[in-house]
Design a protein that fits this description.
The structure is a homodimer. The first copy, chain A, is 44% helix and 20% strand. By secondary structure, chain A is of the alpha/beta class. Chain A has a seven-stranded parallel beta sheet with strand order 10-9-11-8-7-12-13, sandwiched between helices. Chain A has a four-stranded parallel beta sheet with strand order 5-4-3-6, sandwiched between helices. In chain A, strands 1-2-16 form a three-stranded antiparallel beta sheet, with no helix packed on it.
């Protein structure tokens, strides 16, 4: 174990104990102080970021990755706005979720409290440093950040600025910390700091999540991938179906709520597929279809079993014609990852059956799966999406960064 | 992996998909059918139980364990009553936890759904077979039971009777299953059935829980022990403090919500301790105290660091005199396991400080920690207590055996 990381985790645990009873006004003041400090530190940030960019270029980083890594005055401004937006979000801590007076006179309430210490392991984009810290602090948690080595100079500068600004207006020491070591051992220590780190959230690609799930000994909240489906029912409006399918695939193919496989009822295939597939191919989507798709659209490549299993995260779409709603449901049960699944239908009955049968974080009727997102759901910012069934499913916003405790007040009650 | 167990888990997963849309009336009818079937199977149950008792005696099982293992007509009656009580509990599935109309016209609701397949691993008392199955079924989950080898004949008989009775009135095949193999490999396969078992709940001693936490690859919900404290504040009513402390230790020392360490403010020690310690010793409690306790009560044995760490689950109590509320909070933060912690005080201010500072599933003011229990909290029956911070804290009742999904309905919305 990396002793520096363990010492950080102990300091974070200590900070979290003080954070749990700090009022919302102090937390909001800290977010505002961070916003001001970032605004005033543009020059330093751009200088530190330039070091990362130089190193990235020297290592032959792709221009797409270099772009993700780049800070600009506009992007710094975006982080500042993000901080101020989080400050306006409703404060989740202290909410009385339920309460009851028991026959013996005990008053029992269930009250929302921070989780404690949250570890965030992420890649590439330096803005995640600020976004993650903001959400953890606003929910009363201490946070330990571990960014990618490619952004280490930017991340260290960002974390120092916001941590110092927060402490200046009353955040406890250690409320926001960033791991400076880029060693794997340091990350592993964070994953295994049992009793100190209460929750670990990975923000990044599937490889990062897999490493964390394999190594973590502390609780993890994450998505296990988004092999998302859209099923076009026999009764679907063809225009609506094409719009939704196109949007679900093309609007941002690299994200987890993008559609990967389209299922089409045989009765609507001939009307829908020629138009839709042409449109997709024009948008540079590689279309892979089952035999029945290829009868209608010979331009589609033959899909294999492998295609039904794959989360492409790219401009590739698998299409399958099915005989029935039941077959579509069965396909989704067999291949889905429980992220976001949609039906397009004019039948309330079929919509109800689909909703009941599909076991996923988000089930859609007549809308694009691309809406699975904290902002779109009205939660404000999110630190990711959960496909787990325990604790939180779907977007992980402020409420999902809390737990609860029972508070029982009496007048001397003892148990018989 | 044990192929029989994996096949059971696959059947349970399939059953869980059908269970998720079975109406409450069918689930209640199944519980009633189980109650009737158990009532009509008394003779068989007593015969099978006699086999377990005979084997237990031959292996030299203690009379206490033999008693826990014994079925009697009255105990069968208790299980039958338990089934009928669970049928009367509010149905958690389908509850709309929250809903909202978004500016783009999407209607987003968060709806309570079953978790899926729940594994229960337990020891000794055969009634756990019936209680656990009842709670899982009433919350729409499929259940795989794994009891102790010492009760295998009783458990197999109980599970067969209730499973057959349930299927007779509409439960899907595989909704209630019991692992017949008493091999460790079988239990381990249940713990590692990733993607099939959605949640594993151990019901038994700390050794069982430890084994499960070390081996499980599926999510586990459990208590990590109950090193529970009661702190007697300077302002406490001495009579109330003595009553609460005595009850928290003596009423049932073997359970996780029993007090293990008593913390006493120095200003109230001289008034409280002589009376309380005498009373405890009369009740056969071994009292271990710090030096300041032993100055007042020389009959106390000297406590060591080890005592503050120990969950005795026995008629032993550690007592420590502290200088302040802060010192008491620090002690609980250092040694507590986040289960149930109490303050006895006449000061609202100190009660508030204690509640805010103590990070535990249940925090008590002027009441015995022994109330941490599903029935006492008004949740009805429970399958245990959670000291975890994710998903559920405190008693695990029907609501804690559910998760939620987002249901998003639109009219063709696509994301910009």
């Amino acid at each position: 174990m990396d002793e520096t990381v363990l010492a950080m985790a102990r300091e974070a645990k200590s900070a979290s104990r003080r954070l749990s009873s700090i009022p919302e006004s102090t937390l909001n003041a800290a977010l505002e102080a961070m916003a001001v400090a970032l605004t005033n530190s543009q020059e330093l940030l751009l200088l530190e970021n330039a070091k990362d960019l130089k190193a990235g270029k020297e290592r032959g980083m792709s221009s797409a990755l270099l772009d993700r890594l780049t800070l600009t005055p506009a992007r710094i401004c975006g982080m500042v706005e993000g901080l101020r937006q989080v400050a306006t979000l409703p404060f989740p801590v202290g909410e009385v979720i339920s309460e009851a007076d028991r026959p013996n006179g005990l008053h029992i309430s269930r009250v929302r409290v921070p989780i404690g210490v949250i570890g965030i392991i992420y890649e590439s984009r330096p803005n995640v440093t600020v976004d993650s810290a903001a959400l953890c602090i606003k929910s009363g948690n201490a946070v330990i950040l571990r960014g990618g080595s490619e952004a280490i100079h930017s991340n260290v500068a960002l974390a120092e600025i916001i941590s110092k600004a927060g402490e200046g207006v009353g955040l406890p020491t250690g409320a926001i910390q960033l791991i400076r070591s880029t060693d794997r051992e340091a990350a592993k220590s964070l994953m295994q700091a049992e009793g100190l780190v209460d929750l670990l959230i990975p923000r990044g690609g599937e490889a990062l999540k897999k490493t964390i799930l394999e190594n973590a000994r502390v609780p993890v909240l994450t998505s296990l991938g988004g092999n998302c489906h859209t099923y076009i029912d026999a009764s679907a409006d063809v225009k609506m179906a094409a719009d939704i399918a196109f949007n679900a695939k093309v609007s941002r193919p690299s994200v987890c709520n993008a559609m990967e496989t389209l299922l089409v009822h045989k009765e609507v295939a001939a009307a829908l597929l020629p138009v839709l597939v042409k449109w997709l191919i024009e948008a540079k989507v590689e279309v892979r279809g089952c035999d029945r798709v290829r009868e209608i659209c010979p331009e589609a490549i033959a899909a294999t079993e492998r295609d039904w299993e794959t989360e492409y995260l790219d401009l590739i779409l698998a299409i399958r014609v099915v005989d029935s709603l039941d077959e579509a449901i069965q396909h989704i049960q067999d291949y889905g990852t429980g992220h976001s699944e949609a039906i397009v239908t004019a039948s309330d009955e079929n919509a109800t059956m689909f909703i009941a049968a599909i076991d996923a974080a988000c089930v859609y009727v007549n809308a694009s799966t691309r809406f699975t997102d904290g902002f779109e759901f009205g939660l404000g910012a999110e630190v990711g999406i959960s496909t787990q069934k325990l604790h939180a499913r779907g977007p992980i916003g402020l409420r999902e960064l809390t737990t609860y405790k029972y508070i029982v007040t009496g007048t001397g009650q003892i148990r018989a």
